[in-house]
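Running log. JK asked me to keep both predictions on one page so they can be read side by side. First protein, sequence followed by its tokens:
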Amino acid sequence: MKRSNWFLGIDLGTGSCKSIVVDEKAKVLGFASVEYPGLQAQDRWQEQDPKELLKAAVFSARGAVTASEVRPEKCAGLSIGGALHSVLALDGHGDPLTGVITWADGRAVEQSKALKGLPVAHRLYQETGCPVHGMYPLYKVLWLRDKRPDVFGKAWRYVSAKEYVFAGLTGEYLVDYSLAAGSGLLHTRTLRWNSLCLEMAGIREDQLSTPCSPFTVHRGIRPEVAGAIGLREDVPVVAGSSDAANSNLGAGAVHPWQATCMVGTSGAFRVISPGPILDEKARSWCYAVDQGHWLVGGAINNGGVALSWLRDCLNQAASDLLPDQRLSFEDVLALAGGAKAGAGGVICLPLFAGERSPNYNLNARALFFGMTLEHGVKHLARALLEGIAFRFRTLKDVLIDVGVDVRQILASGGFTKSPLWLQVMADALDRELMIPAWGETSALGAAFWPLLSARGETTLEKAGDLVKLENSCRPDRESVEIYNRMYPLFERLYESLEQRFDEIAELQAELGRQNGEMQGHRDRHSRGNGSPEKHGNTGFPPSRE
């Protein structure tokens, strides 16, 4: 058993919960990950079961603590990081009225689309730092009001997934500034709930948790949770921040000239700024982290999820012929490596899950352009990686346009495990990528909050001293020249299709409804009148405040 103080970071992501244990010098002692059940790339419209998220947080934390072989009484603090833009409604007993509606859920597209182009859209962006887009909880609450009035009328409180899990662990509801900012309901300068947004949504301020500093400390967790994880009951729980802000901390990107390039399920390119930075064209977002730092940047919906789509398509096509052989991510990347830079002139708009920055269009759709009989699956795989990299180049250009001086880029997320993907990204951005020694930067950043708090630190810049860089990836000049020729065509291709995205999305929705009605008819005949399966209780329901 290790006798020194240690700290626990819990990263509540979109597809899984990851937990990490570090010592007083930020050395990783243990790590564990638990996937949420029933989540597939094509299920992005569905809501997540909040009780399963809470269960995953407890199990992953227990796994990390067990792997670390640490003494429970030596835990000097823990923190939870949460994915941005989620929301669920709770009743007066603190029980869920909905599932966790994630950033990827696009049902609020009409609510946001109704405001685009109106003067209020510009005001909303200037006050909240959030472009008008259906991913933000503001518009999801509007959707609930319009489409689920029964739920809207019963809702006692609206919380993010992190708030639900935090309450499950501690019995208290609170929300850090970053998660609050990512709701689209927080004033980015006053750090208070925005009255205009509350009025638009038709909700009261007391239906939301009080925003707080990431250094806010709650003393103690529930006895049953402490026993399940292997902690003492009076452990300090530091509020911490969003997974986005934590990713910057865990990568060491804590100064305004340092950007993180993160590719996980989705992707983001962002910096931490000493003041709010807003774009007149509303192409970027600006989320408060604390009273003196703002997270500025852009995000894409299609990171690893686009690669998942290609892998699943290939596996599905081969399932009848080779049922025992399944392609992995590594296999798809190997296919991409079989094509040279430029993918033989094939360009991919990787908009499989719609688009966030810079155009914020959930109706955007994916495209492979330039294919001939000479092209094969290796060109598709390579074009997909390059298309994702071009999306990041767009985000970098936006930050440069708003005056951000990006002098260093730190890579984070799953793509850092692939030398090919790192090289494609470095070439497309024409910048050297620095790679931290620990790749799970969001989980590591979550552990930094209690570590810094225990040291008496009150500024997040100190997190940069805790991060070690392992490697770097420099751009290849020949590939850079190829991508410099292709990127303007990539941009023009999007512009030429922009007016057609709504048309194809409407057609797909109509065809989907027709197919759904036919499938529902077949299901009723094949199953009879069965009742839906109910979700089980995790044993750790959050209590009312």
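And the second, directly underneath as requested:
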Amino acid sequence: MPSPADLGDLLVPLSAAAVTGYLLGSLPFGYLVARSRGVNIFEVGSRSPGATNVRRVLGSVPGTTVFVLDTLKGVLAAALPLLAALHYARTQGQPAGASGAAHLAGADAAARFAALAGYLGLAFAIVGHAFSCFTRLRGGKGVATAAGGLLVLMPFVALISGAIWLAIFYTTRYVSLASILAALCLPPLALLFGRGAMGIWVAVAIALFVVVRHRANVGRLLKGTEKRFERKKPGGPPPGGNP
């Protein structure tokens, strides 16, 4: 059982993971890319700074750029805390009787602690993407950012979920439906690939978050009014609509 001092020392890297994740997630790439084209993305299309709306309004290059940058946010938000915590746990846990995180001695304990830091960084990055401190708590739905982080923490789960997204999207042309169903596949996939209780609960939390962020889309899907994805026509006006 870790002592209060040990727990206090562990709070430092975990707090750093949370803060780093939130700030990375809050970077409003969709807003910035659109602004560079003279467009306020919060006022056009679905009024979302996500890659889908940027692609609809401005075209494939800006949309793809935002998707890559939003995915990279998730990669960094998971990878940086994971690597930093792994280094911290191993160095602090090696000397016998050392203060701080001495109870983390051993590779398995260090790996669990590092995974916790990575999951925490990703969770706060998703929250930051949805509620950015740089855009008055406005943001996207967190799908690309979640995908980037899961590629680091659960690569096989992320890849299969991504394949499911592609299959549903190219079958239906509904971005929202593809995102929701791919997210709902995360918990069973995490269980299938033996990601442990921590990984399964993180997958459940991400799935619920994605579904809640798409609640308006769910209503339109049920009513049959959800708009299918259509490429922006060259020279045409920005398409309206909601996803």
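Observation for JK regarding the second prediction: The CA atoms of residues 183 and 207 lie 5 Å apart.
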